[in-house]
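User: Run a structure prediction on this.
Assistant: Running it now.
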Amino acid sequence: MAKQKPTINVAFVGHVDHGKSTTIGRLMFDSGKLSQQELDKLKAEAQKHGKVGFEFAFVMDKFKEERERGVTIDLSYEKLITNKYEVTIIDAPGHKDFIKNMITGASQSDAAFLTVSAKDGVQPQTKEHVWLLRTMGVGQIAVIANKMDAVDYKEDAFNKVKAEVSTLLKQAGYKPDEITFLAVSGFKGDNVVKKSANMPWYKGPTIMEQLDLFKQPEKPTNLPLRMPLQDVYEITGIGTVPVGKVETGIIKVGQKVIILPGRTGKGVEGEIRSVEMHHEQLPSAEAGDNVGVNIRGIGKKDVARGDVVCDAAFPIPIVEEFVAQIAVISHPTVIAKGYTPVFHLHTAQVPCQFIELIEKTSPDGQSSKNPDFLKNGDLAKVRVKPIGNLVLETQAKNPHMARFAIRDAGATVGAGVCIEIKEKK
């Protein structure tokens, strides 16, 4: 079997209508991932809907349906193979999906392309996305100045976007001089996969080349074992088989583990009997692998989705309360003390109550201590109390177990990371 290339998750974010989906569609087509025949079909489809020129955007919409039907464990349908990586592309259409994609489940972004239209420049959503990438700990970003065809491929239009976005990146704590700015027309295909002849002044990489310039994400195998359970199966002849993705560390046969919080809220201890991946028994598995495990001493009733398998010597804390840094993305009114939405963390869903609003920074950069309420666009530091048992770690200790989405009545309200913990006694 050929050795698999390292994987990297890359999100495309940016203001609605700045050409993200079209750019990704073009990337898929020019890299040979999408056939001419499929593209012609999409073209006809786009015309039928009165959306001439939207055929590339329809590529991702085609995937959207697939996503809704598809399985969450394997993101294979948006994979792109480059010289160096196997890339999972996360298209972030507007808010809600963006957050879901960004924070929950498998799609933790290692890097992101911020797409800004050279015609329209920085928009309110562009600002929000930059702060969100920062809050969620996405360290590597590149900026696509898109729709260069709409500004006659002029260098000064590119420089203007570059200056605007650089100011924004600096405010959020990124270093603009370390960030690559790409001059692109997703629609026409300039500098997506093929170098553009229309911008002789541009010396930078194409999007395809930039994918390989992102640094390889380090596999967090040096952190303690954390494997959040996605499901627990009962398999004849084997017994109870919890399934999930190893987020950090290594899991191996014979290892002593504790599963937290477990049904009792005190954890259940056991020993790894077998590790299986793709119907194959393995001696061990590491961060990034989706596996099924059989654990001596663990029955179907002891554990459930949302529990976390940990190395017995390094258990994950069960928290009494915690302090989080959050971004409020979409709440119909305002959030005050006492608000109790559902927090989605790794595979768990736990209602949590806001018990203190410590400070907030509004989108214009004004900050205030102990605000009365939070509204859309605010970044805030809050103290939160779980209603029920919750396991969590701080961003400093284990970023993979610190991120969460906040949901209420079926919609994503916000996103954040845990920065301090008070453990349950």
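Residues 155-171 form the longest helix (17 residues).
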